[in-house]
Amino acid sequence: MKKVKLTTKTLLTLALLAAANPVTRAQTMDEMWDSSVSGKENPNLKWFKEAKFGMFIHWGLYAKLAGEWKGKRYYGSGEWIMSQARIPVAEYKQAAQTFNPVKFNADEWAQLAKDAGIKYMVITAKHHEGFSMFDSKVSDFDIVDATPYKQDPMKALSAATRKRGVQFGFYYSQFQDWYEPNGGKNSWDFDESKKDYQKYYQEKAIPQLKELLSNYGPLGIVWFDTPGGMTKEQTQGFVNELRVLQPKSLFSSRVGQGLGDYRDFGDSEVPATPIKGAWESIYTHNDSWGYIKHDMNFKTPTEIIRLLANVASKGGNLMLNVGPDGEGNIPEYSVKFLRETGKWLDKNGESIYSSTYGLIPAQPWGVSTSKPGKQYLHVLHRPVNGKLLVPDFKGKLSKVYALADGKNLVWKKTGNDIWIDLPAIDADAANTVFVMEFSGKVPDYNLNVPVTVSNQYPENMVEATFAKLKGAAKIQSLTYSHYYGDWKHTICVTDLKNKSDEADFSIRVTEPGVYKIALEYSCSPESAKQEGSLTVNDQEFLFRTLRTSDFDKKAPLPFIKHTIATTTFTKAGVYQIRIHPLQDGLELFRLKSVSLDPVL
Ligand code: H79
Known about the structure:
Elements: H1 2-20, E1 24-25, H2 30-36, H3 46-51, E2 53-57, H4 61-65, E3 68-69, E4 72-73, H5 81-84, H6 89-92, H7 106-115, E5 120-126, H8 143-146, H9 153-163, E6 167-172, H10 197-215, E7 221-224, H11 232-243, E8 250-251, E9 263-267, E10 279-284, H12 301-313, E11 317-322, H13 332-348, E12 356-357, E13 366-371, E14 374-379, E15 387-390, E16 396-402, E17 411-414, E18 417-421, E19 432-439, E20 451-453, E21 460-463, E22 468-470, E23 474-481, E24 487-494, E25 502-509, E26 513-522, E27 531-536, E28 539-544, E29 560-569, E30 573-581, E31 590-598
Parallel strand pairs: 2-5, 2-11, 5-6, 6-7, 7-8, 9-10, 10-11, 20-25
Antiparallel strand pairs: 1-22, 3-4, 12-13, 13-14, 14-19, 15-18, 16-19, 17-18, 21-31, 22-25, 23-24, 25-30, 26-29, 26-31, 27-28, 27-30
Residues 1, 77, 79-80, 225-226, 267, 282, 289, 481, 484-485, 554 line the site of ligand H79.
């Protein structure tokens, strides 16, 4: 899939940078993307960059099947059930005969988006199953011709959404189409070697996209997915042919060949560091994109609010998916939890909408976003003593206040450190926002700032992203899944194979104290029981690796938090942590983080 390639390419480049430069770290990934995306200066991106929060909707015949086929339940991406269960077209199409979503109410859906603080909506016009959720003259396998419902829900939804000032767009699976003999990826009905993808593009995908771009008013986005079967020139021709119909509509990067207007990360992926330009992270509310009746694993309002802040703190948009059922109802918890998110955005939206990435890296207290002259502190964890550190802040600070009530806070500046006296915070709050107002030009986020370690927080995590690498060590994003296609991504230091391969971390301990040091890692059976060395604070600590499991992208990647040492920092200050194998040979482990948990 497109996203995996982009990530791998980016990280490969980082690895090459690391190889050329013996001590380096994961620097920003942004320039690469900026130069490879066509829409860098595109004025049509303005609304998108301001929007920050989108709603994705996966709705199709799979919603009617609800994750079950012939009495057997399927888990993971419900919109993949036809592929997962290898359902023949002749049987699958029968589901349309009973698909009658009479509970669908366009105004309710659009109002939910509005109430949730959502600024754009993208709905599946056609997913890989090949079924059109709109009135198509190109195919009879559509909601008007093939179902008892006989209406076009996209007409009403596009109008209701736009009426509320929310941008509207379509997801369209341009290459995969399991219903068509020449569409991508149905190998259980059709012989892949006999497929004529160009015929499919000419006879279905392009004509249908023209219908979508002609019959539903101005589209904010056309969201393509899983490109295939076209050269770069053919993709350019495809884009050009569609572009003339709606020159302002944004095409997602999964149109392929670097020809999108903005970048999408992988499914359920947030980049580790700030990224410039226009981009989006996509997540689903539970485990599946399309409705599955036994999938009740919904992210809580707190999780959604924190995810949104985290994505915004890197400079991107979050598009969160909901999967309405076969009757046309959005799941109860999606409705409730989105409305809760909307209540938070009502009060705190200033810190999200039209913002960009924060000017400092993530801290033990949370993340930050910024606007010209303003830095928003998203406090997820309050320091016990109420003294909040904003390190490496180079602007000329004029005031600090709570976003909720505008009350000024006492602060002081020591060098480039800002120390803020926080008021009491509701312990249950998902995210309490404080604002720093400043003048002067502030340089971009600096990844070289030592990671804050403080006894004011129960845990201090130093993430792999912040490693400086030596030798053959690399930083990689490992992609794997729990259920079918529900991707997870974890950034790790890998390839610590020899004594000279090292992961080094610069930390700043803000108060003297005693800390337990733990390593969070994944370790294959082959790598287990090897010795490693961690040096910090003029002491070397030895440890022996514990087995977790092999890496398998279709299974969970378990991590163990292995506590290895106790140490006392007698003075506040900057310290280096150095980690390497004690012998030459096998990879030591895949290191996710080093944590320092205060004891005294
Ligand atoms: O629409 C949602 C997904 O259905 C779609 N993108 C999001 C927005 C998507 N299409 N493809 N993929 C995601 C990647 C899927 C990879 C898979 Fe597999 C290959 C799924 C099934 C085969 C690997 C093997 C994962 C599960 C089995």
